[in-house]
Amino acid sequence: MPLANLHRLPDQLRPNLRLVFVGTAASTRSAAVGHYYAHPGNRFWRAIHEAGITPRRYQPSEFAALLELGIGFTDLSKSGAGMDHQIAAALIDVAGFKAKIEMYRPRTIAFTSKKAASLFYGRSSGVISLGRQQRDGSLPEVFVLPSPSGAASGHWTLEPWRELAKWIGS
User: Fold this and answer.
1) At what angle do helices 94-104 and 114-121 cross, to 10 degrees?
2) N or C end: fewer C-beta atoms under 10 angstroms in the chain?
């Protein structure tokens, strides 16, 4: 199935969420099944539970239920799908993402990869640190998390996820 024909993930946003997870784009698996972080090798759902962000381990199909916990989801590209390096620059919509953040005003946003953060900030991922970022008065608090993708296993650590959980008071 060509990527252009895959179903894209809907935003899960509403005003004043305590946390919004932000990826670069849906993986091909997530786009195909319509669930965030759906690839079996992705650590996202295990990580948010083990870090203490959620009271139990949710399944990808339950992503909408996290709104009840004050947690939302979006991506910088709502039209692309695949691994970060496969997403065309033209499909990244930083302005659209900033407009959503301004409209919904979450307390904290957490990029689920250094790549997503680098696209947002417009600088190399090599100069972006994991964890809580320097506060910019126009934005909510920002965290950068290591990618939970199985493809990023060499850079995995749960510690920034735990830092986020402590920050949001979970």
Assistant:
1) 90
2) N
Rg (CA), the chain: 15
- Separation of CA 61 from chain center: 16
- Does residue 40 come out as left (phi exceeding 0), alpha (psi in the -120 to 50 range) or beta? alpha
Rounded to the nearest 10°, the torsion over CA 51, 140, 15, 8 is: -70
pLDDT reading at 5 higher than 80: no
Return the minimum-mean-pLDDT range out of 4-8, 9-13, 45-49, 126-130: 4-8
Q: Which residues of 18-56 are buried (b: 16+ CB within 10 A; e: fewer)?
A: bbbbbbbbbbbbbbbbbbbbbbeebbbbebbbebebbee
CB neighbours (10 Å) of residue 123? 11
By CB neighbour count within 10 A (0-12 exposed, 13-18 middle, 19+ buried), where does 74 fall? buried
Which DSSP letter does residue 40 get?
T
As a whole number of angstroms, the distance between CA 166 and CA 160 comes to 10
Backbone torsions φ then ψ of 44, nearest 5 degrees: -50, -55
User: Could you read off the pLDDT of 85-144 as tens digits, one per residue?
Assistant: 888 888 999 999 999 999 999 999 999 999 999 999 999 999 999 999 998 887 899 999
